[in-house]
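Retro notes (design track)

What went well: tokenization of the new backbones is finally stable.
What didn't: we kept losing track of which sequence belonged to which structure.
Fix going forward: every design gets posted as structure first, then sequence, in one message. First example under the new rule, 389 residues:
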């Protein structure tokens, strides 16, 4: 088949995008509605789980780095860089499904995929999840309340007379001797969006915000998204972490001070950055162009191999200060693996010893098998190829 000229191919792509927009109701009358989402997982520096992403917020994803967005609908979308832009660039609306949005991103050349999870299916009855919500009186926070939730105020450590102030009125509250908490006053109703100040001796000690949840949601994921987007992090951050662990396979992202296709001169210091979208334990090795393999991390690292979710580490850096120098001319390769536990005691000592120098040839040739053999499964891995001149 004769390939289409570039102009015709571009026209067909624009027509396909137009048809998709029309089919999704995105080009209907009136302005598009911002499709707020929660960041569920990230290997991109500067983005951490729990961040609220509005349709107009810029997303800047380096090559190979990814973010997974959890929308109000409970659907999830993973975007992989390179990408710079906003969600509203594709005019999302309240009627846009995440699969349709993913397809629109693909038509723009962006790596986008819909993520399914074990907790995304099945509606959730919030009214049936009645619970006691305990308010911390001396710490400002926002709380989400279901239709049947009961609100309590914990006894503050410091004594004194306290009051709840909303707008111009103040309601005095009293903590009986020995009581760990008291029920929220029945004559102080809580409405959606209310904010109260807890005052004592004329001083404001905390601001308490409240949002009322719907009676039901299409899925547990949608319920979590609603809670996080309402700002109720203390209640919903643990649920968000569990949802991320169950829904998003862990990933590693690896880059250098010269980018993802780096070129260094022999003997030049190499700077590496590693980030994961889950808590784990990091192990890195560099295979030089002369065939020698050298352990990079955690050999000599302060605090061992621990890697925090969405927290990038630099090599060398505070955790590992020894310089990493480009080897002889040719092609070198840095490989990193992420384990969900500290597997250091089960690895050959040479992988952890900063003074061991190069690894034995047999060990260097079997690294994937060594790491897979610990738990009998392949570990998440990131590879960076470096050209040395």
């Amino acid at each position: 088949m004769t390939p289409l000229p570039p102009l015709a191919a571009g026209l067909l792509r624009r027509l396909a995008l137009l048809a998709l927009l029309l089919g999704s109701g995105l080009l209907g009358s009136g302005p598009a509605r911002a499709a707020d989402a929660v960041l569920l997982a990230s290997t991109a520096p500067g983005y951490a789980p729990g961040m609220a992403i509005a349709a107009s917020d810029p997303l800047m994803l380096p090559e190979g780095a990814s973010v997974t967005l959890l929308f109000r609908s409970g659907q999830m979308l993973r975007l992989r860089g390179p990408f710079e832009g906003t969600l509203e660039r594709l005019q999302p609306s309240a009627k846009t499904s995440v699969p349709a949005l993913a397809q629109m991103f693909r038509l723009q050349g962006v790596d986008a995929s819909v993520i399914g999870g074990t907790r995304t299916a099945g509606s959730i009855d919030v009214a049936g999840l009645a619970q006691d919500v305990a308010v911390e009186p001396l710490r400002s926070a926002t709380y989400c309340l279901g239709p049947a939730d009961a609100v309590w105020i914990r006894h503050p450590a410091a004594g004194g007379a306290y009051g709840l102030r909303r707008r111009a009125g103040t309601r005095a509250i009293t903590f009986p001797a020995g009581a760990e908490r008291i029920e929220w006053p029945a004559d102080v109703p809580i409405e959606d969006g209310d904010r109260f100040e807890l005052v004592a001796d004329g001083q404001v000690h905390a601001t308490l915000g409240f949002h009322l949840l719907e009676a039901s949601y299409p899925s547990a994921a949608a319920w979590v998204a609603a809670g996080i987007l309402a700002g109720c992090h203390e209640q919903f951050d643990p649920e968000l972490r569990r949802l991320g662990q169950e829904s998003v396979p862990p990933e590693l992202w690896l880059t250098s001070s010269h980018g993802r296709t780096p070129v260094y001169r022999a003997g030049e210091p190499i700077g590496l950055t590693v980030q994961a979208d889950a808590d784990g334990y990091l192990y890195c090795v560099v295979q030089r162009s002369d065939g020698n393999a050298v352990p990079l991390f955690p050999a000599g690292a302060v605090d061992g191999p621990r890697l925090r979710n969405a927290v990038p580490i630099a090599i060398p850096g505070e955790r590992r200060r020894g310089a990493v120098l480009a080897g002889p001319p040719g092609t070198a390769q840095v490989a990193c693996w992420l384990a969900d536990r500290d597997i250091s005691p089960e690895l050959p000592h040479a992988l952890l010893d900063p003074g061991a120098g190069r690894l034995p040839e047999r060990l260097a040739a079997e690294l994937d098998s060594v790491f897979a053999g610990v738990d009998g499964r392949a570990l998440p891995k990131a590879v960076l190829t470096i050209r040395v001149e």
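Added context from the reviewer: The two ends are 42 Å apart (CA to CA).
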